[in-house]
Amino acid sequence: MQKKFKIEVDCANCAAKMEEAAKKVDRVQNVSISFLTQKMVLEAPDDTFDAVLKDVVRTCKRVEPDFEICL
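^ thats the sequence. predicted structure below, dont judge the formating
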């Protein structure tokens, strides 16, 4: 499953660091974090998508504590 999320990230460097860290999260098939568009695209297995999303958010918050997903 692939989903897009609107996010808040402060700089391009932080977005790159978060993307690199998120790609290392278990069960992440692909992730793209863009500072310019303020979007994150996450691809993970359907059956564990919510758990993977939580892990990715937790990982991104370690890189930049201000990271937010806008719902």
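The chain is about 35% helix and 30% strand.
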